[in-house]
Specification:
Elements (H helix, E strand, L loop, with lengths): L25 E4 L9 E4 L18 E3 L6 H32 L1
Antiparallel strand pairs: 1-2, 2-3
This protein binds zinc ion (ZN).
Length: 102
């Protein structure tokens, strides 16, 4: 049983991953409820809704673990929570403008 130390993970360079095509995998960020802010590598030819055009389609996928601290997770989660709130503000501002004009 080893406990992971949370210190000493700052500034670690992102490792380059290669998929089955020997293409450099691209780092994405997940925004699903299960894995908010979690980063993963995906093939250049992979993206949500990618057309399944035979050869080019690749399902290379790998989580980038260990690089996200608790603090960073909270920040990312907050950013995600703020997003719809910002949209609300924009809508309210529009309404306020409409009220002003009346
Ligand atoms: Zn690939």
């Amino acid at each position: 049983m080893e406990s992971n130390s949370s210190s000493g993970t700052t500034g670690s360079p992102v490792r380059i991953r290669l998929c089955e095509h020997s293409e450099q995998a691209v780092l994405h960020t997940s925004w699903t409820d299960k894995n908010p802010g979690r980063r993963f590598f995906g093939c250049l030819y992979w993206y949500p809704g990618a057309p399944k055009t035979g050869g080019a389609h690749c399902e290379y996928f790998e989580w980038l673990d260990g690089s996200i601290g608790e603090q960073e997770k909270v920040v990312l989660q907050s950013k995600r929570d703020i997003r719809p709130l910002k949209q609300c503000i924009v809508e309210y501002e529009k309404k306020m403008e409409e009220i002003d004009e009346v």
